[in-house]
Amino acid sequence: MRVFTPKEVAATTQSKYLGVLVASKYTRELNALPRDLKPLASEKKLTTRSLEALTSGQIEFRLVGKRRRVE
Questions:
Q1: pLDDT per residue over 4-63, tens digit each?
Q2: Per the domain annotation, does 1 fall within a domain?
Q3: How many distinct structural domains can be found in the chain?
Q4: 23 neighbors 51 (Cβ within 8 angstroms)
Q5: Which domain range does residue 15 map to?
């Protein structure tokens, strides 16, 4: 199991918290794929693969503001 430091995660995102949120969303997307369409290296856990992709810059994301209520 690889250990990811907060500095590694924060290097590609604005903060370590945002990095964990992005990686968890990506993990959910990987988990939703059928088994035969999942990326190679399936011997690793999905969370490890997500954090590796995030720290290597393979994941592109953008922040979306909150929706405002119309009253």
A1: 999 999 998 989 999 999 999 999 998 888 877 766 656 788 899 999 999 999 999 998
A2: yes
A3: 1
A4: yes
A5: 1-31+43-57
